[in-house]
Description:
Blueprint: E1 8-9, E2 14-15, E3 20-21, E4 26-27, E5 32-33, E6 38-39, E7 44-45, E8 50-51, E9 54-57, E10 62-63, E11 68-69, E12 84-87, E13 92-93, E14 98-99, E15 109-112, E16 117-118, E17 123-124, E18 129-130, E19 135-136, E20 141-142, E21 147-148, E22 153-154, E23 159-160, E24 165-166, E25 171-172, E26 177-178, E27 186-189, E28 194-198, H1 200-205, H2 210-223, H3 230-240, H4 245-255
Parallel strand pairs: 1-4, 2-5, 3-6, 4-7, 5-8, 6-9, 7-10, 8-11, 9-12, 10-13, 11-14, 12-15, 13-16, 14-17, 15-18, 16-19, 17-20, 18-21, 19-22, 20-23, 21-24, 22-25, 23-26, 25-27
Antiparallel strand pairs: 27-28
Helix pairs in contact: 3-4
Amino acid sequence: MAIDATAEIHPTAIIAEGAGIGAGCRVGPYCVVGSEATLGPGVVLHSHVVVAGTTRIGEATVVFPFASIGHQPQDLKYRGEPVELVIGARNTIREHVTMNPGTAGGGAVTRVGDDCLFMMSTHVAHDCLIGNHVILANNATLAGHVEVGDFAILGGLAAVHQYVRIGRAAMIGGLAGVVADVIPYGSVVGERAHLAGLNLVGLKRRGAARGEMHGLRAAYAEMFEGDGTLQERARQVGERHVGNALVQEVIDFITAGSSRSFTVPD
């Protein structure tokens, strides 16, 4: 690996031998880039950013001061095995954000998609898998092995328990403690989070068809009422709403199997 001739490196920055710095990168004052780190084209490290470990940061991602990216996972089972942190393109990583690589017990990789926003002091723990266009507001925290679907939003100070899945376009309210899976398009609130309905605002923003949204609202009401387990009711609802892609996505999420239970209405 090498430093591209078009990269701008501040004289106070420390770039370890072996690091890869792509075309058009800007590495600001007092940044530290480790020997196994790679910055894609156009990446910006503003100042006082540390990129450690086997970390890859995708094209045009911008990292703000005092972020700590790629240091060893906060897991007592970690024994120094080779692990990775892979961050996609065009992400915005604000001040004091921390992101850790994976562990051997979780696939050895933490992966962040494209076009995400991580506001101040958010945390992405080991083995998390984060989709595209995800937003974590100030101080939101993901424990290890959490999966977050595309377009999901976590409000300020929200905390997600390890192994929880957050479905596509779900909305997690501020201060919520999420200890169980959240269905796609779900809207979650509460100190111990409960499902408060659907994230209809998010669906409208992404251009969901009115008919599909009406079908999803009906399916939601059917899934959380009546006899049988949630999985049984979900399968029955799927049979009644054939052809609605939004409903089918929720059904697939519920029936896919998980180590956690589900966040449900009060």
